[in-house]
Design brief:
It is a single chain. The protein has about 80 residues and is mainly alpha-helical. It contains 3 helices and no strands. About 70% of the residues lie in helices and about 0% in strands.
């Protein structure tokens, strides 16, 4: 899916410098940045939803002792 974005000049200069130094394409780096950034965003936003449920008392939390006991790690 072709997509276009406008980058601030400073970011475009940095991207161009990276391309020039490594010989890889802009498309390569943009795909990498979006893929990794999307994973980070998903992790952050999904975790923040869990935190909110914990604050509201709608998500169960476990102590370290409970986890160790349930996993058979308590000695």
């Amino acid at each position: 899916m072709p997509t276009s974005i406008r980058l601030p000049p400073a970011i475009e200069r940095r991207l161009n410098a990276l391309v020039a130094k490594t010989g890889r394409s802009k498309a390569y780096y943009l795909r990498e940045i979006i893929t990794n950034g999307l994973e980070d965003a998903e992790d952050y936003y999904l975790a923040s939803q869990v935190v909110e449920r914990v604050r509201q008392g709608r998500e169960r939390v476990f102590t370290l002792d409970e986890v160790e006991r349930d996993l058979g790690l308590d000695d």
